What does this fold into?
Amino acid sequence: MPENLSIADINSLWKSHFSSLMGGSKDNIPSLMDGVQSHVFEANTLVTPKNSLCQHYLMNARGSLRIQLVTESGREVTLYRVQPGEACILTTSCLISHQRFPAEAITESEVVAFTLNESIFNHYLNHSSVFRRFVFQNLGQRLADVLKRIDQMCSPAVDQTLAGILLKFNQLNAPIVKTHQDIAVEMGMARETISRHLKCFENQGWVKLARNTIIIRDADALSKLSMI
It folds into this structure.
C-alpha cells in the first residue's frame, strides 16, 4: 500500500527536487506550494489514460513514470520517462494547447507526484518568470530526449540500438532482470524481433539468456557494436 506523506515529507521532497521554485519573492513563488497537491501511486498504476482530459500539471518527486503509446495492433512503445525533478511534457503541451492526452502514463515503481490544477498552472505561467523558466526548460530538455527516442525507433540498426539498451540496463555487471517484451517496449519494436536478435547475440557469446533474465558475457563486444 502507498505510504501516507507527512507535511515534513512533502516539504523535503519539494526542497530536494524543486528548489528553484522556492525563491523569487518578486514572483511570489513561495505561495506556489499552497496550490500544490501531493499524490502517492503504487507501482504499475495507470495514472493518465489515453485521450483523457489534461487538468493538472504533473511534477514527479520520487519514482519513475513511463509515458507510452499503444498502437492499434496492441504494441506498446515507450516515449520517455518522467524522473524525480521532472515534469511530464505531454501534460504541459496538452494544458497549453487544450488537447487530450495522446498516450498513457504508467508508474514503474511507487511514485510521489505533485500536481497543480489548470488555473493555478496558467496563473504562474503568466505571472512568474521563475515558474515559466522551469516549465519551458523542462519542456525543451525532455523534447530533445523524445526526438532522440524517435530516431532510435526509426533506425534500421536494431543490433546497434539493442546493444546500447543492454549496456544501459547492465548495472554493476548484475544480471538484467527484463523480459524480451520489456526490451521490445523500450525499443518500440515487436517482441519477436528482439528475441531473434538476442538469440543472435547469445550465439556470438555476447549474452546468456535465461528466464526473464539476460546476463552480459562480453560487454566490450556490445560496446563496440553500439558505437558503430
About this structure: Helices lie at 7-17, 89-97, 118-127, 129-154, 158-169, 180-187, 191-203, 219-226. The mean pLDDT is 86. The chain is about 45% helix and 20% strand. Residues 79 and 147 are 9 Å apart (CA to CA).
